[in-house]
Design brief:
This protein has about 180 residues and is α+β, with helices and mostly antiparallel strands. The protein has helices spanning about 5-10, 130-150, 155-175; strands at about 15-20, 20-25, 30, 35-40, 40-50, 60-65, 65-70, 80-90, 90-100, 115, 120-125.
Length: about 180
């Protein structure tokens, strides 16, 4: 990260979330939060690193919501250093994540988990498109609107109206993406 403050980095997407494992990911020489611009689909080199205080079961590169590659962990399942290439066929995003199926001391959450923010991929200047995701979010917002209409504890009628207006605007955006 090459920025002024922690909040600057967070605003730029130069971050990761974790309840224990530490992850580091570069893709095509780009760091999390960056955009990788490609003139054509191609195999892109990546570097993935994991250090964890508890064993993890899975260490994966995920692109556009799909596991692209399951990465090899060391024998302890607490560390990995992997270099490789993965195909970038279309615009979208890639993240690195590590997770376990169950809790293990000292991470007494449901399970150990870490994920990087995305590295965005732009192939031939084509905007990423996922009609399936847009349909999901439009339906999710629709259910939220139904619950909101029944919710009785508003500070004012204006507050409820504003929330419903914003939800409907968001739903329309996703409906146009389908």
């Amino acid at each position: 990260m090459n920025c002024g403050t922690w909040t600057d980095a967070l605003a730029k997407g130069e971050s990761f979330a974790t309840n224990g494992p530490l992850v580091r990911f570069t893709f095509g020489g780009r760091n999390v939060g960056d955009e990788l611009k490609l003139d054509a689909p191609q195999a892109v080199p990546f570097n993935a690193r994991l250090r964890s205080i508890v064993p993890v079961d899975h260490f994966e590169v995920v692109c556009n919501g799909k596991v692209i590659e399951e990465l090899k962990l060391d024998e302890s399942r607490e560390a990995a250093e992997v270099r490789g290439t993965i195909p970038a066929q279309q615009s979208g995003w890639c993240v690195l994540r590590a997770w376990s199926a169950k809790a293990e001391y000292p991470v007494m959450d449901n399970y150990a988990y870490a994920t990087t923010s995305p590295i965005y991929v732009n192939v031939r200047g084509v905007k990423p498109r996922s009609p399936e995701d847009a349909k999901y979010f439009a339906a999710w917002i629709g259910r939220t609107i139904a619950v909101t209409l029944k919710y009785p504890d508003w500070n004012s009628a204006q507050e409820k109206e504003l929330v419903l207006r914003r939800l409907n605007e968001a739903k329309q955006i996703y409906e146009k993406m389908q």
